[in-house]
Amino acid sequence: MSSAFIIDAHAHIGRPGMFFAPETEPDTLLKLMDQLGIERAICMDHLSIHEGCERTLPMLRDVFERSGGRLYYLAVFSPKRSSGCMAALKQAMIWPGFIGLKIHPSFHGVPAEDARYEPAWRFAAERDMPILTHSWSVSDYNPVQQFSTPARFEPFVKKFPKVRFVLGHAGGRGTGRHETVRMARDYENVFLDLAGDIFCYRLIESLVDSVPAEKILFGSDAPWLDPRSRLSHVLLADVPASAKAKILRENALHVYRLGVKSPC
Q: Is residue 123 part of a domain?
């Protein structure tokens, strides 16, 4: 595979404020991308998760333009700030680099099936935009993960079958990953990404054996994890080169419609 081939479909920029992450600036991410042959990345900024997208979307547009069109961005929809978020989303629809929505039920403390998420799903459906979500397994030490278990998204997946829906972190570990695999099999519009600290034995081989390779997207979860960690797992996996090409690039082009202008 040539250099600048890879698309990182799940990265972050900006100070998280709750965990130690010393290298969060866009320029740092771009330098690392240059070293690793990552052509483009799809980013969420940490401030949006705390404050909603109203303040941060203009900053992300600026980051996209300063990056030479390499750092695309998702708008974080907060179900607790719905009206403000929706106004900002409608304004940003014509902006370059804005390619989808992000939701995070665990952080916002609102279960994934809650009706307050419907405006985001409807917005995405009407504009042919994808939604990326945090997803994970039930966790004894982090109980808010219960709000983001994959099956909880199922009512909206069924109601909005045209929305390309990405289960970030592939549901985490254990039962969450099993639910993600089932949903990717059952629903044409469900995909998964590899971002996160999921260091299971032969993870890539297991996923490619379980779901079509067209359903799997490479994501680094930078700066939480060094992109080389997840990237090495894909490059060294015992799967066909055609599957690696889909995971590392082709699927992101399809899901996020990169290079295709969304209708307003």
A: yes
